[in-house]
Amino acid sequence: MNADSKMLIQSTTDSDLESKPRRTRTLRRILMVVVPAVVVTAGATWYLMTGRYVGTDNAYIKADIASISPEVSGNIRSVLVTENEAVTKGQPVLTIDDTTYRIALVGAEANLRTAASVIESDRARYRQREASLAILQGNVAFAEREYQRQSALASSNFVAAAKLDESKHTLDSARQNIALLKQQEAEILARLEGDPNVGLEMVPSYQQALAAKASASTYIQRTTLTAPFAGIVSQLPKVGDYARTGAPTFSIVAANDVWIEANFKETDLTHMQVGQAVVVNVDTYPGQPFRGRITSISQATGAEFSVLPAQNSTGNWIKVVQRIPVRISVDDQRAGPALRAGMSVSAEVDTGKTRFEQYFGAAHAQLPN
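Above: the chain's sequence. Below: its structure in token form.
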């Protein structure tokens, strides 16, 4: 190998050695600038294009629950259903001993018949007084004529003064008897509401007796407790237990028309509206989502309904994100498995707006015209 060849190889080797650090520095710059920029751009894009769905696991299934209390007191005579049995609206659940109330009904019916008899007796006495009044009026007319005759004879001294006084006394007595009879008629008419032909239902004494009978009948009807709506009965009493007026005897939980009460953070409600679609996952049925929609949003946070509301005006105040109850209906409940009150669920609402639309849409709305 000649000297020229050796010099060419040496120069080529030196050039390669100098170019390697240059390429390394270029690659390092690319890795340090371009890759982070791509990652930041991808992350920002992902962040702005998400945020459409808002979820919470502070959610539970709710249903109408009624504690049934009797309106009458007494020993429970029979329980017509079993614990956790499904019942329909109006179905009898249990009965209370009605012996006392049936005795009261018999007494009320007797008082009703007595009231009717008294009214008929008053009518008969009124007719009697009317007949007697006609007779007394005839007596008064005769006494007046007799007194006039005696007065004419006395003026001519044909009769004694005692005879005139006797005729005057007879006339006064007849007139007083008429006045007394009219007072008796007025008393009878007062009991008959001023009309001797008034119907029984218009007389207060009969109305009172009729009301007492209706009350006794109502008490008997109330000894049978029925289901106010279709559902599942629970906490049933035993036969022989004493049921007290106003004290809960059993409970019924609605089997249909359950709903979800989801407690979202107040910061999640910015774009939440009634009617938006919701996906509900029940802990009892993993992997089987339910579809629903928002039906209402509470006007107050849960803290406002607490027994002791937070006193935010005190000096030791700490800001805590509040939660607002959102009611969610479940679509086609009968098609899926049973949903029971109190079950834990997670709810995810589709607000229909990504963070990009939320941020830039709001900024565009605030721009002046």
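Helices lie at 3-49, 99-155, 161-191, 204-221, 355-366.
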